[in-house]
Amino acid sequence: MAGRTRFEGKSWTGCIAIAAAVLLGAIAASPAPVLAQGPAASAPSPDKGGNKAPEPAKEVPVEKLMAPGLLPDVSIGKPDAPITIVEYASLTCGHCGHFHRELLPKLKAKYIDKGIVRLIVREFPLENFALAAAIVARCTEPAKTYEATRALFVRQKTWMTAKNPRAALLAIGKEFGLSEAKFDACLDDKALIKKIIDSRENANKAFGVDATPTFFINGKRLVGPSVVDEFDTIIAPLLKK
User: Fold this and answer.
1) Residues whose CB falls within 8 Å of the CB of residue 49, separated by 6 or more in sequence, listed in order
2) How many CB atoms lie within 10 A of CB 77?
3) Element (H, E) at 217
4) Is residue 82 reached through a cis peptide bond, with omega within 30 degrees of 0 on the bond before it?
5) Does residue 78 form part of some domain?
6) Does residue 11 belong to any structural domain of this protein?
7) Residue 25 falls inside a structural domain
8) Considering its fold, how many domains does the chain have in total?
């Protein structure tokens, strides 16, 4: 069964200063937040008129999806690979962590390492703790950002359940070259916070992203896959073109 964590549609756009002010406190709080799991296949919430919200389009225009955004893409694989997978994920989403721990190594061996697929990982934070983790990854040198992001996903259960989440996040940041001073400065970087939040809002409005993880495989939507076969089903026909 597919697994995903729902996006409730709340906006932080008007609260950048507040977000910056509370971020350090949010990750220092104890106990740490529980890993976000969410319903496996929730129906869209009814609107005020009692009608179901429209289902997101099953496919989005590739040129629109790949247009330059507010932040440089974090990716792995050949830039000219014939197939591009774009993932929208929250670093506190348990299903996203499962993808990076269990499914991605298989996709990497089967497609990415052979130059067939390029994977782009885009932030879609569902709450402040995920936002803080995304900022930590973004503040590393560009050449290290993907590996920092992957480390946060792979070791998700460790840093999210740590007695001192701030220290746990800082330790990962230091592995990728972040000093404590830069770590603190980044978590107070209102411009970076705004870019991440605005990017999330754009993904929701432009592409209908309302759950994590959501993937677009050459524009074709796949939400919450639990096995590699779900990717194979979409990739195989694309390779025949």
Assistant:
1) none
2) 22
3) strand 214-217
4) no
5) yes
6) no
7) no
8) 1
Structural domain boundaries, residue 197: 62-240
CA gap 197, 67 in Å, rounded: 18
Residue 154 near residue 97, CB atoms below 8 Å: yes
How many Å apart are CA 223 and CA 206, to the nearest integer?
16
AA identity, residue 67: A
Any idea what DSSP says for residue 52?
B
In a domain, 224, yes or no: yes
d(CA 6, CA 50): 20
In Å, what is the CA distance from 40 to each residue of 95, 187, 211, 223?
9, 32, 10, 10
Q: Which residue has the higher pLDDT, 41 or 151?
A: 151
DSSP class of residue 40 equals S
Question: Which tens digits make up the pLDDT trace of 58-117?
Answer: 999 999 999 999 999 999 999 999 999 999 999 999 999 999 999 999 999 999 999 999
Separation between Cα atoms, residue 240 and residue 85, nearest integer Å:
17
Q: In whole angstroms, what separates CA 112 from the centre of its chain?
A: 19
* Cβ count near 85 (within 10 Å): 24
DSSP string computed for 11-27: --GGGHHHHHHHHHHHH
What CATH number is attached to the domain comprising 133? Answer: 3.40.30.10
153 token code pair: 């996903």
